[in-house]
Design a protein that fits this description.
alpha/beta; 7 strands; three-stranded mixed β-sheet
Length: 289
């Protein structure tokens, strides 16, 4: 057992060294920074290697949860990296708002185009995102947009998996080492149903309220017309059946405009909206949705 643990440790440390080598060769680098576990580790590594030659760029819009915006600012201050936040406004693009299955491609194309332009204006010719080695296993149309625009993915190139990233983040005392997976609020709306600012705000407020109750580590509120379908990590499902908690959630979510509030007994599942597309790969759904 000790040998296996040593082998694992040597493996992800070697991957981190590979990441550092990749970063040394980039010169000045802008990081597309979301405040999640992956992009935070990448920003930390880039800061350590590149010092003042690193910049954090964050894309905000109506599909960005308010708590994610706050995290971005807090983490950039913690890592002492200059941060520029941009409103990218993808909701105003009809191709994004109609919510087809290539929604993430449209969104990423808009966001990365804006970030690349800003980075170039500031003298940063390269931009990198937080895609990791696990992401290649899933249906992620946004990745195609990043590749087309020349966005680098140093974590993926170094072979770092999500598990590796969490372990390394803990070793580096990053507060994001155990942060739940996140995705833009638009991922809560089923494909084919129009994305609106009102729907996004409903989801954001609903999830914020449930988080305030400290019931669950991972939460999603799927916006299904008049119904709010709640997904939580499996270990927390029982907490939602307690009568006082249940009444609070129902009352608040109905105050947001939902007529029905449902609890998904299967629990949280990454990318569950892709079930409607019949897209299943190795019994895992698209990461992050």
């Amino acid at each position: 057992m000790r040998k296996d643990n040593l082998t694992d440790r040597e493996s992800f440390n070697a991957k981190y060294e590979a990441l550092q080598k990749i970063l040394r060769e980039t010169g000045r680098l802008a990081i597309a920074f979301s405040g999640g576990t992956d992009s935070t580790l990448l920003l930390k590594a880039a800061k350590d290697i590149l010092n003042e030659n690193v910049l954090a760029l964050s894309a905000f819009s109506e599909s960005t949860a308010e708590h994610e915006k706050a995290d971005v600012h807090q983490l950039a201050r913690l890592l002492k990296v200059p941060l520029i936040c941009m409103e990218t406004g993808e909701l105003h693009d009809p191709e994004f708002a109609k919510n087809a299955k290539d929604r993430c491609y449209v969104c990423r194309k808009i966001r990365f185009t804006a970030l690349l332009k800003k980075a170039a204006e500031l003298g940063f010719e390269r931009i990198a995102d937080g895609e990791n080695a696990d992401d290649a296993k899933d249906f992620r149309p946004g990745t195609q947009a990043a590749r087309e625009l020349g966005v680098q993915s140093p974590l993926r190139e170094a072979g770092l998996t999500k598990a590796d990233i969490r372990i390394l983040s803990k070793q580096l005392d990053l507060p994001t080492w155990n942060k739940p997976a996140s995705a833009c609020l638009a991922s809560r709306i089923p494909y084919g149903q129009e994305i609106t600012a009102e729907k996004l705000a409903q989801v954001d407020q609903a999830e914020a309220f449930i988080r305030s109750l400290n019931l669950t580590w991972q939460i999603r509120v799927r916006h299904e017309g008049s119904t709010a379908r709640i997904e939580a990590d499996e270990e927390s499902l029982g907490k939602f059946t307690e009568s006082t908690i249940r009444r609070k959630i129902i009352s608040f979510l109905k105050s947001l405009g939902f007529a029905f509030v449902a609890l998904d007994l299967e629990g949280y599942s990454t990318g569950s909206l892709n079930r409607s597309l019949g897209m299943q790969k190795e019994e895992k759904w698209t990461k992050g949705n």
